[in-house]
Amino acid sequence: MTLLRVENVDKSYGDEEVLNGVSFEMDRGDVDVLMGPSGSGKSTMLRCINRLTDVDSGDIWLDDTDVTAPETDVNALRQDVGMVFQDFNLFAHLTALENITLGLKRVRGIPESEARDTAMDHLDQVGLAAQADSYPAELSGGQQQRVGIARALAMEPKLMLFDEPTSALDPELVGEVVDVMADLAAGGMTMLVVSHEMGFAQSAADDIHFLDNGRIVESGPPEQLFERPEHDRTEAFLTGLQSGEHR
Amino acid sequence: MSAEEPTVADEVRTTIDVDTDRPWAWLGLAVFWGWLLVRWVNDFLLPASVAVPGDQSFFPAAPFASAAESLAGTAASLGVVGVPLDFVAGLLSFVAGAIPSFPALARGAWLTIVLTVAGIALGFPIAVVLSVARVYGGRGLRWLSLSYTELIRGTPLLAQLFVLYFGLPLTQIVREIPGVGSGFIPGTAALVAILGFTINSAAYQAEYIRSALESVDAGQLTAARSIGLSKREGIRYVVLPQGLRYAIPGWSNELVYLIKYSSLAAFITVRELFFQAESIANDTFQYTELYVLAGLFYIALVVSASVLMGVVEDRTAIPGLGGTR
User: Fold this and answer.
1) What is the phi-psi region of residue B67: left when phi exceeds 0, alpha when psi lies from -120 to 50, beta otherwise?
2) Which member of A78, A85, A137 has the closest CB to residue B320?
3) Beta carbons within 10 angstroms of residue B321's beta carbon
4) What is the ipTM of this complex?
5) Which of A85, A106, A137 lies closest to B319 in CB terms?
6) What is the assigned CATH class of domain A1-74+159-216?
């Protein structure tokens, strides 16, 4: 059953074409990974899906919501689409727990005590119940990102977007975040992930979309893209990634 | 982002620490405020039957005067050796000369504090609105906010007070408000001055808060929007709580400035600290003594304000966000 349908999306910043006729679909429970060189439009694609950026043309449907329609309530849409950022973007003045309860209270209108219980459950899910009262500055990057994931999950989204969730992390902290994401994927969450984590893509992804210059050059399951890429561009990029990992 | 780098806030805090870590400064402040509070209670609250008369000092001046006189005499007989003694005699005679002015200066200090605190406090919400409009508003709101701050910051505070007091028919309206000018409540001119300081400090505070808001990472509002908060809610619950913490050091500066700029209210007949000092000086011709005395009062007020804002900064500090702890 299709949850997300992206059709022919174009987006330019000035003269620069960032997205050029991008189309793909995701079923409920799918985990798709967007890969591609920097500047290929991956992050912009994610931001179009929760309307942090508006498309120039094309359609995006989430369930039966016409995402790109001007009359769509973006605040309601964004509750259905969780987002995890490269720089975590935890609310710096709030504890880990309060980072999660803010949305529960102010967006979903849940009373304080119930919001705290729900938030604790989500912190527990990412293994950080003990850090509930810590401020972001007191947490490691990996812990911050796990709180970021819990914050997005607490809104009970239909779809989770991950924008390079591990690329700002020290290498030894990547694992804990990838583990949480793998758990989520195994639990049936629909996830669209911009990442170059080959391990995660290989084990968790249903499809990988390779973007270059704002176009999807090639899509397919990991074993196909990693082992028998059809396009030279895909192969060159993936080879570079793999050798980069041994640097 | 490195935690070791000292921020502007840290530097401001360090200077305050240097001031307040000195025990004599604490002692001086404690004596100053203790006396001031007793004086206000006596002048404004106690019934006239038990109170010390409003124009009479708590301390007798005569012992200081006679001590100064006899010391000066001894110093003169000692010749060159007596110079330090002569200096002490000079200090004692300064104290003797200052004591009769204390009650009037205490009343003046009360008004100075009222003008400053009211101007800052009433200007603050206006400043928040102005700065948010400036940073997050549309073209029209940005223009309005910018025009206001440039108009106010670009013209002399004294001219603004003159327009309000002499130019507009405000005084006739304010005068009719019941209670104005009795006891603790400031009089007509002081209320007009408060209005002026509110309008003026709003513009300056808005500039401090604007630059603080701009230093909040843009990702914070993006994250707020991404969980479904509206832009207004994101500003209210995420950007402002952080930006206002960043604004505290600049805001302390504005408080310190306003304590001193409030002396301009003397020119529209408000009997605040500077006005009192000047009018006594005009009567007694002790210009140097009175202005030095007024200066000491202002220093005490400014140091108190710095200490207070340091406490506020520490109380509101959050790991990674301002403060020193």
Assistant:
1) alpha
2) A137
3) 18
4) 0.92
5) A137
6) alpha beta
